[in-house]
Amino acid sequence: MSEFLSPYQMGKVLDGVIPANRIARPNFLQTWFSRVEYKSTETVNFDREFQAKNTVAMYVAPSIDAPIMQLQGYGTQELRFAYVKEGLTSPDWEEINQRAIGNDFGNVDVMANWVENIRKKLAYTEFNFENLFELNAANILTTGTHTATSALHPSVLYDFGRTKVTTGVDFAKGYVPEVNLTTLTPTGGSAGSRAWSAVGGTPYKDLIVACNTVRRRNNVTAVILSNNAWDALEADITKNYATAATLTLAVDNRIALHVLPIVEKYQDLNFRRSLNLGDGTMVDIFTYGAIYHDRLTGVETNYIGDGKMLVLPSKESGIKVYGRIMHPDAGFAPLPRYVNTWKDVKSGKQESEIHMNYLMGHTDINSVACWTVM
C-alpha cells in the first residue's frame, strides 16, 4: 500500500497548477453595440425619424398645382454620460505572506504575490465593466431603455422611443416592435389569450410577425428566446408545423462552423434550430441564459428574463460613446478607461480608481423587436 506524499513532497512533483474553470464572459448582447465613438461634448444627440410612412404619388391634372413634398419628421434626444468607477487597494501583509496558487510549499515570494494580487483585481475590474456593458445592452434591446443609477450616482434615464403596441387593432396590423402578450387584449378575445402559455397562443406565427417587423427596416441576424419561450415555440412547431420542424439546413455544418466558436466565447448561449419564416428565409434561434450578480445583494439575475422573444437585426445601429474622464491628470480627455493611482509614502499603501464615462445607445431601436410572450 503506497503512502500519500506530504504537501512538501508534492511540491517537488508538481510543475504547474490546474486552474479552476473560468466564468465565460457574458458579452454576447453587447456585440450589437460594437460601434465606438469618443466625444468631448457634455451631451450626445440621438436623432430618430418618426411617423415614417410609405406614401404614394398623387395624380394631378396639368392645370392643378402639385402638392408640396413633406419630409418625414424627426426628433432629437440629448443624452448625458454616466460615470463609472472601480476602486482597488494594494493587499495587506496577510494576503501576500502566504502560499499562492502555483507556488511551492514553504516558499513565499511576497512581492510576486503582491503583483499578482493587483493584476487579478485589475482583471476583475475589467470583467465588471464588461458585465455592465452587457446589462446595458440587454436593457436597451429588450425594453428600448436603460437607467444608469445607484446610491452613488444620480439617476440617468436613456429612452430610445421604441414603438409599443398595446391594442388588438394595432397588433393585427403586423408591425409590432414591442408588445406584452400577457396583457394584450386581441380583437375579439380576452386579455392575455394570445400569450404563448395560453390555449390561444400561436408561437410560430408570432415569431414570423416579429421577424417581419424587423425585416421592414433591417435583416434578421438572430432570434434569442428565454428557455421557457423556447419550450413553448418548440412544442407549437412539433405539434402544428411538422414540416417546418424538419427545415433545419445543414445542421452539422452550422454547429461545426457557426455555433461552436460562439459557445466557446459566450456563457450559456445555445443554438436551438434554424427555422423557415415561410418565404424561404431562414433564421437562427438561440437561447441565452447568461447571468449576473447584483453588486450589493448578490442576487443572481438573467440578462434575458423569462418569457422573452428578442429578434436582432444587423449590428450597425448600436453605438458605445466614451466621454471625458473627469480628472485633471487624464487631461479631461475622452478615454475608454483611466487608472488614477496614488501612494501613501509613509505606509507604502497603494490605491487606484479606474474611471469610465460612457453611454450606449441605439439609432434605430424599432429595428429590434422584443415581445413578452409568457
Explain what the structure shows.
The protein has 374 residues and is of the alpha+beta class. The protein has one domain (25-50, 77-372): capsid protein of prophage fold (2-Layer Sandwich), CATH 3.30.1930.10. The protein is 26% helix and 29% strand. It has helices spanning 7-13, 93-96, 110-143, 168-172, 203-215, 227-240, 242-245, 251-265; strands at 35-38, 43-50, 73-80, 82-89, 145-150, 153-159, 164-165, 178-180, 220-225, 269-276, 282-288, 291-293, 300-302, 308-313, 318-322, 338-343, 350-362, 369-372. The strands form five sheets. Strands 7-8-18-14-9-11-10 form a seven-stranded mixed beta sheet, sandwiched between helices. Strands 1, 4, 15, 16 and 17 form a five-stranded mixed beta sheet that branches. It has a two-stranded antiparallel ribbon with strand order 2-3. The longest helix has 34 residues, at 110-143. The radius of gyration is 27 Å and the shape is globular. The N and C termini lie far apart (61 Å).
